[in-house]
């Protein structure tokens, strides 16, 4: 025998099986949202916003230039931290705001690059909370510089041989 739920729906006996109550509640909530004009309008707004973010994400993923720009910013951050470490090996850190200013990268974008560089082990936070390049970061910056400027490396090698 089916029993009536508070929503006005009738529950079939098999829906009383453990685990189905959560699913049923989701369906009831969806039904209530669709039948209430105000809730439906709010849902439609959120759904359109969600679709727009998905479209934007897809466009960014197709844009190969994003990877190039990211690589340039990351190398710039490594280069800045490299130069700071060379200036003062005992005080090698740069703060978040100064790094933002020197790199020309807005804070909301810089956070991604700092996360990436830190996750790779190329930068780290110092004891006083500043960012500093690690040995691995120096090696990475050096290998990127050599890859980008083979002519300059050949000139240096030629000058040292002569």
How does this structure look, described?
- The protein is mainly alpha-helical and 162 residues long.
- It is 70% helix and 6% strand.
- The chain has 7 helices and 4 strands; from the N terminus they run E-E-H-H-H-H-H-E-E-H-H.
- It has helices spanning 20-35, 37-62, 65-87, 96-103, 107-120, 135-148, 150-161, and strands at residues 3-4, 10-11, 123-125, 131-133.
- It has a two-stranded antiparallel sheet with strand order 1-2. Strands 3-4 form a two-stranded antiparallel sheet.
- Strand 1 and strand 2 (10-11) form a beta hairpin.
- Helix 1 (20-35) packs across helix 2.
- The longest helix has 26 residues, at 37-62.
- The termini are far apart.
Topology:
Blueprint: E1 3-4, E2 10-11, H1 20-35, H2 37-62, H3 65-87, H4 96-103, H5 107-120, E3 123-125, E4 131-133, H6 135-148, H7 150-161
Antiparallel strand pairs: 1-2, 3-4
What is the radius of gyration computed over CA atoms, rounded to a whole number of angstroms? 28 Å
Major sheet: 2 strands, antiparallel
> What is the spatial order of strands in the main beta sheet?
1-2
Mean pLDDT: 80
Counting DSSP H or I runs of 4 or more residues, the number of helices is 7
Percentage of residues in DSSP E strands: 5-15%
**Shape assignment:** elongated
What proportion of the residues is helical, as a percent range? 55-70%
Low-confidence stretches: none
Query: Cα distance, first to last residue?
Result: 98 Å
Helix-strand string: EEHHHHHEEHH
Structure in a nutshell:
This protein is mostly helical and 162 residues long.
Key descriptive features of the protein:
162 residues; 7 helices
